[in-house]
Task: structure prediction
Amino acid sequence: MKTKLFGKIISATLAALLCSTAAASAGSMTTAPAETDVAAPVATPANPWAGTKWMFRARALGVLPDESNGLLGGAPAALTAEDSVVPEFDITYFFNDNFAAELILAVTPHDVFLGGAQISNVLLLPPTLTFQYHHPMGAFKPYVGAGINYTSIIDSDPTAAIGGVDDWDSSFGLAAQVGFDYAIDEKWSFNVDVKKLWLNLDATVTGAATPASVDLDPWLVGVGIGYRF
Result:
């Protein structure tokens, strides 16, 4: 793509230089040339995405923790979190037809278990910002992206006889994604999106001041619709 883009820029520059040279040699530059507006890209059946600046999507989002490295008081522990399915909203801004930034917003509840016994439930707000490369192929447009996640603990509630885990810490993590959009018409599209987050959460067992931690590293799998303009 970059080679083609550079080729087009070079070709356009050479053409402009040749036209200017021809005009000068003909002595026809008696008046200042009139200014012309550069036309914005226009969506066509071959590329229905051309000229898109904003896209809003609504998705059903599956949050699937892939836990590892659970620790309780410094010792290995079988800390796990339950899967969750929630509504999700995202906003995407396109710098051009190929490059964009996406912000996703959702609230996800999870029950947390230690060796099969529930010890807490938490409510997470995990906004994720990714920078994306899109490759339009007619109505079908795959993309890849990478960015950063910040998971904030909105609420938590200890549920175990040992006191449970209540004091969860918010955390930053990295994110990667792959997905595609399929144009239904000139405004609406169908979307499938998969993200992987690398996320570690630290906590404290209520009443015992025992530290706990776990790498949640969830998969985020979303399916939904988008509106672009």
Summary: The first strand starts at residue 54 and ends at 64. The chain has one domain: 54-228. Confidence is low (pLDDT under 50) at residues 1-36.
